[in-house]
Design goal:
It is a single chain. With 757 residues, the chain is an alpha+beta fold. The protein folds into three domains: 286 residues, GH92 mannosidase domain (GH92 mannosidase fold); 250 residues, Beta-galactosidase, Chain A, domain 5 (Distorted Sandwich); 159 residues, Glutathione S-transferase Yfyf (Class Pi), Chain A, domain 2 (Up-down Bundle), CATH 1.20.1050.60. The longest helix has 19 residues. The two termini are 25 Å apart. InterPro entries: 6-hairpin_glycosidase_sf, GH-type_carb-bd, GH92_N, Glyco_hydro_92, PNGase. This is Putative alpha-1,2-mannosidase.
Length: 757
Amino acid sequence: MSSNLSRILDSVDPFIGTAATDLPAAQGLAASWWWPKAQVGNTHPGACYPLGMVSACACSGAYPTGYGLYGISTEGAPTRMYDDYLASGFTHFQQSGTGAIRKYYNYFRVTPMIEPLDSLGNRWRLRDEEASPGYYAATLENGIRCELTVGAKTAVHRYTFPESSSSRVVLDFSYGGLAIEHGTTVPLRAGIESLGQGSAQGTVVMEGIPLSVYLDTDAPGWRQLVWYDRRRVDGGTRLDFDYIRRTTLRPFGLMFMGPTRAGQVVEIRMGFSMRGTEQARRNLEQALPGEAGFDQALADTREAWSDYFSQVEVQGGTPERRQVFATSLYHSLIKPCFAQDESPFWPSKGPFVFDIATMWDMYKTQFPLLTALNPAKGADMLEAIVRIAEEEGNLPIGYRMARGSDRFFRQASALAHTVLADGFQLGLEGPEWDWALVHMQDDLRRGYGEDFTERGVVHPISHTLDLATGYWCTAIVARGLGDLKLADELEAKARNWINAFGPDGLLRDSSFYEGGRWNYSFRLLYDMAARIDLAGGDKEFTAILDRFFGFGADPVVQLGTPPFGTEFAIGLDLDRFEGLNNEPDMEAPWAYHYAGRPDRTAEVVHAALTYQFGTGRGGLVGNDDSGALSSWYVWASLGLFPVAGQNLFLVNAPAFAEARLRFGGNDFEVVTTGHTESGIGEDARGAAPRYVQSARFDGKPLDRSFITGTQLHGGGRLEIELGAHPSDWATQTRPPSASDRTDHARDAGARFQEFLP
């Protein structure tokens, strides 16, 4: 990587997305987009390890991460629970950017205090907050400076106390969830033990998961004891609860206490496991052997973040654009959580992954980015997904650190099939592919799949598209493994996607999850050529898209704070692009590529990058959804977009002059000529989109608007000439569709060969 390219790790601002959307008024095309869903990023600024099991953050009990100001918000601007940033302590395991996920974690609350134990649960104001990758700090209004860092399976707290005759660090094992109705989590069973000499351990069963911690502290001479119902258990070293009900729950935990002089520092080191306290202890000792503490943990975590960030370097861009890009990359690498050898549901070693929450957001952009940056992690994720099917009976639609069948089936169907097909075409070796195929085929009949199999259509109608795609992706794996008969049968079922569309070129009337038929009508299907023909052809399809994206439309007024009046119904009647505020719209801008209008894609994407992302706490237009929204920004800024399940990346005008990428373990470059710098928000007034005039890949002309995933992962040099006006580049040859395929090119890889440069 070139030394003059800007390192972006130090540009990350974890506070972006933690507050209500606060973006400059959009201009031009973006001003016509209407945002119906929650206008808040729902991120948190806590300490995170890249794709690690553990996070740690200040906890106020606010929705949905435990950090911040707000109550439940599903549409419009969020309403406040608090007037200021508060914390009752510092918790572990947080969601990132999700909405109504119903599993809110925030376990093992740690509270430094100089007040009596009766004050536990009070919320102190936060001052002088700081955050960077792997680090969070704040000062409580009682004067205690609090710093947090984490490893993959560990956390270290560092507290700097004022002078006090009775300082303490209190660990609440009973705490979990949020301070909202139906948001708390109550442990079912628990056992904690004070081991003496600054050490303790315990296990709580939360949402069906036995979560264990082993901890130690460096406060010599301090007393340590257990407590129950905010009262010390004098002389006691253990607490055990065989069965806890919500009506019988009383707070309980551990406490370290003693006098402090001004500026005295106390550290708490914690190791976590879902397989008992012994493994929790080993996790801590392996990560921080001997007397290694906060500084070593932070250095290790910063190095882990640097390893990822060194693979994505960009040239140029304003400081604000670089900060948004860096933070987007950071948010893209928080979830899912990888917990090697930690499955609480099966005893064998191997990958275990949770907080795929939810896959309907993440499979389009976040998973392809994860797999590009770390193919081994991508392979582990696929192996874990197949193992879930083996152990629990179905491939997940989403998966959290919780036991139960609540797997997001209302949102979508057969999404794991798309992820598995992507990995198969890239040659990832994680799962046993013969066995994966068995589960893919079996899973197609689950949920709404039975109706689809029998009738070729199912309502909600978007599940018809999901299941048809699932059949297509399963056929890719079957054909690649040599089962041609099965592949033919699956592909025949896959063609039933057409049953979802009506004569107007849009999806038929149905119920839709968090959207409408316009939002769901422009998915990038595996047969876009046939889908465009169904709408009447290129011209007619482009006209429908133009109406959806608001070309020539007047600016709209966004929703304020609930309750709403007529403005909500008026907005719905627009049938308009909902920007990056709503997940079903994420891939729609690239539908223009298939109609020979990449210039339109450039205009929409430019407007989104310019006006729907910003700096500051209010810099996200909607929920980040475990990094799905942020990873969209990363791909769009690089001038690329993954087409899920198709081993395909669409090419567009990048937002940076150059990028040096390490994808698939190989070097990939994006280099432009004719690039002009433009700011974001108010700094972009009058800035026009740039259009691709021509392109070359590895020195050869590229007159098509795509490359394959195999090319991206294999490394190469993509040169893009940009200009101020649309050109005829990529207007004749379209990205591949199923109906383009000839009889002699029937395997999943060969169907792209005729398009390679």
